[in-house]
Write a structure and sequence with these properties.
InterPro entries: HAUS4 (IPR029327), HAUS4_met (IPR026214). It comes from Stegastes partitus. It holds the Pfam family HAUS4. There is one protein chain. The protein has 369 residues and is mostly helical. Among the domains are: 129 residues, no CATH class; 33 residues. Helix content is 82%, strand content 0%. Helix 6 packs across helix 8.
Length: 369
């Protein structure tokens, strides 16, 4: 029964590529691509269902509501603290400006009394705040040097001076803050520095709205930059994926056609080396002819050539005779060791016959003489 609403919710988000795009838009911080969602359809459906219960940052609706309330409360307390801090720092700056002014110009006595009363009041108030324990500290802890708030309040200026300072303080503080705002206006728009004070005051009233507008514009640009960064990362991943596919296709084409191309290349290289070898041989022959012409005369070269031809023919005849003798010898070796003894006896008898013939020829020559 629970599968029906879930299917309805998923189908309401879109189908196919539309569903993938909405899932990616719902989870911009996740490092996913459409290919990942296509390969994992069940995970894509899970994310589509989960997108109805969480926001882009991954927070649930209830937690987001509580976080917004806490953020509003924090902003309220922060604004209250900032107002107090701005006033306190403004008073400190006024006191510092008065101290600097005293060393450069003559300050009226009433202003000296005003700033001295303000400084003493601020110092006593700060010391009282340091001595007063807060709500989180132990009320029974010993005070510093045995001092209490009553002891410090005795150091306050005269009451009439304090009352006079309090009556003049709002106006003085307003003048100081106005001067700071005008300085901020001159920094924000330097071309307005030479304008009249009335015109500056009018433009100053719109400065807060302009700054708020600029802040919102900067935040919008920051958000746009973040979205463009996420989009760029996705496009980079897609580009790298397509580039990897192209490289794989190129590798397959190279592997398929490498043998054919290599064969053609080897044939061309072989033809080149054959032609180069033939050229080298012709050059060697040319050098040999030049050496012969430089060393011998034409008649000598012709005679040497004939001698060489005769020697080569005799060498050829000797080789043929050697081959015939080796053939006969191999045929005799087939007969075995018994024929070897007969051959030795035959050789011995031939030697004796040759010796006797030689002796007979010598004896005949001697008788003839």
């Amino acid at each position: 029964m629970s599968a029906g609403p879930e299917t309805t919710n998923i189908s309401s988000l879109g189908k196919g590529d539309g569903l993938h795009q909405q899932v990616l838009a719902s989870f911009p911080l996740c490092d996913m691509t459409e290919e990942d969602l296509t390969l994992n359809p069940q995970f894509c459906k899970l994310l589509a269902t989960l997108a109805q219960h969480v926001d882009k940052t991954g927070l649930t609706v209830q937690l987001k509501t509580e976080l917004d309330k806490a953020e509003q409360k924090l902003q309220s307390q922060r604004s209250h603290w900032l107002r107090s801090e701005i006033l306190h720092r403004g008073l400190q700056e006024m006191s510092q400006d008065h101290c600097v002014r005293k060393h450069h110009t003559i300050v009226p006595p009433d202003q000296n009394m005003f700033y001295e009363t303000m400084q003493k009041s601020m110092l006593v108030a700060q010391c009282v705040r340091q001595l007063d324990p807060s709500n989180t500290t132990n009320q029974d802890q010993p005070s510093v040097l045995g001092l209490t708030s009553q002891h410090l309040m005795e150091l306050m200026p005269l009451e009439k001076n304090v009352q006079r300072m309090r009556r003049s303080l709002p106006h003085q503080l307003e003048m100081h803050l106005k001067e700071k705002c005008l300085s901020l206006l001159s920094y924000y728009q330097p071309e307005w520095e030479n304008e009249s004070e009335g015109l500056k005051t009018i433009k100053l009233s719109h400065l807060s709205a302009q700054l708020d507008k600029e802040k919102k514009r900067a935040e919008s640009l920051k958000e746009t930059c973040r979205e463009n960064t996420v989009l760029l990362q996705r496009q980079t991943q897609l580009y790298l994926s397509e580039l990897t596919k192209c490289i794989q296709l190129l590798q397959s084409l190279i592997l398929d056609h490498r043998l054919k191309i290599q064969t053609d290349l080897d044939g061309k290289k072989l033809d080149y080396f054959e032609g180069k070898c033939e050229l080298v041989l012709q050059k060697i022959k040319t050098e040999m002819v030049e050496i012969q012409l430089d060393t011998y005369k034409v008649d000598s070269i012709s005679a040497h050539r004939k001698i060489r031809e005769k020697l080569e023919s005799e060498l050829k005849a000797c080789k043929a005779e050697k081959q015939a003798v080796e053939l006969k010898l191999s045929s005799f070796e087939i007969l075995g060791k018994e024929f070897e003894s007969l051959a030795e006896e035959y050789c011995r008898l031939r030697q004796e016959i040759e010796m006797k013939n030689w002796a007979l020829k010598e004896f005949t020559k001697y008788n003839d003489k």
